[in-house]
Amino acid sequence: MNDRPPTNARPKVLAVIPARGGSKGVPGKNLAAVGGVPLVVRAVRACLAARHVTDVAVSTDDPAIAAAAAAAGAHVVVRPAAIAGDTATSEAAVLHALEGHADTDVVLLVQCTSPFLTHEDVDGVAAAVVVDGADTAVTVAPFHGFVWRESARDGGEGMGHDKTVRPRRQDRPQDFLETGAAYAMDAEGFRTHRHRFFGRTALVRTDPARVLEIDDPHDLARARALAPLLDPARTPDHADVDAVVLDFDGTQTDDRVLIDSEGRELVAVHRGDGLGVAALRRAGLKLLILSTEQNPVVAARARKLQIPVLHGVDRKDLALKQWCEDAGVDPARVLYAGNDVNDLPCFSLVGWPVAVADAHDSVRAAARAVTAIPGGAGAIREIAAWLLGPELHHTPSLHNSPAQ
Predict the structure, then answer these.
(1) What interhelical angle do 39-48 and 119-130 show, nearest 10?
(2) Would you say 270 and 403 are in contact if contact means Cβ atoms under 8 Å apart?
(3) What does pTM read for this prediction?
(4) Does 4 have pLDDT greater than 80?
(5) Which DSSP string do the residues of 139-204 spell out, in sequence order?
(6) Class of residue 208 by CB neighbours under 10 A (exposed 0-12, middle 13-18, buried 19+)
(7) Predicted local confidence at residue 398, as pLDDT
(8) C-beta separation of 90 from 74 below 8 A
(9) Is the dihedral of CA 151, 153, 157, 160 positive or negative?
(10) How far is CA 136 from CA 193, 200, 202, 204, 384, in A?
């Protein structure tokens, strides 16, 4: 049994998130977006929201991961090369992070490869040690399956059960599956044993529907498909966003093109979108239309809305990076609205990737929010309502904007 500090002193609880740069199964895995948010950022947010956690550290050898973690509010621990290879253990990363937090009472190991970890899960393992006095704790999910292993002698061999006996689920002992998401350890005991399990281990139950570890591209695809179902529904508001960048075809239009007898192309836009853009301008948000389309209709629409435009660009992501730099905008505070696969590189750059309702499936899966209205039918008006309220009321600037 561990010895906790006096009850009038809040224990120091350090959550360590190992997130090295190298990954053979999924290159760049820890920065891969699920629900429009990089995995490492999802883990940082869950830890920061946990009531018992006092400090959050991300252990990494990768500058891009370090930047994303710091922007999300974590302390970055630069991991030495000696403990950053394929054979390095998570325990080694946690022990290294502890060196800079000597006063830690309880240390957590939180894996960002479990995308649907919640702050309640993090608090659960922390409380098991801080409040209930366990030495270690682990997140588990109820498990009712029969486990098998291939045997050269017998073929399929039952593990922990006799394959000739098939008891009903209610007649079997309750088993639990280790989720791999979160662990908690008494810090002094962890320094001594140098392993995540020692002494009395508390099992902290979690929702089986959220159990998923990302080890290969199929896991990542499944996580992205599940995110709209498992992530709490949330749309951004004005406090989240400094700039709005809009794709054109399929986002401000319905993706159809009308061609007259002389070969001229015409598209249809929605007046409500013009109203929304005007309100966003009055609210002081920076705006940009970004499109690969070379048709002059894109520039004509931008002139009508009186907002900047970059069109006919081959690499929208590079153009977006440069625009953010020139405009002095943090990409984490940019909302980018798109509809097709050429928008995905931009999605990975911004804090609020948004898909219109009829976007390609892969775009919807990568989005952090999805409009209820299709592109060209008022989706931009809907986004403006998220940021400014349904009536689009906001203190006007000194400059008037066109209403449509």
Answers:
(1) 50
(2) no
(3) 0.77
(4) no
(5) EEEEE-PPEEEEETTTEEEEESS-TT----GGGSPPEEEEEEEEEEEEHHHHHHH-SS--SSEEEE
(6) middle
(7) 37
(8) no
(9) negative
(10) 11, 6, 6, 11, 47
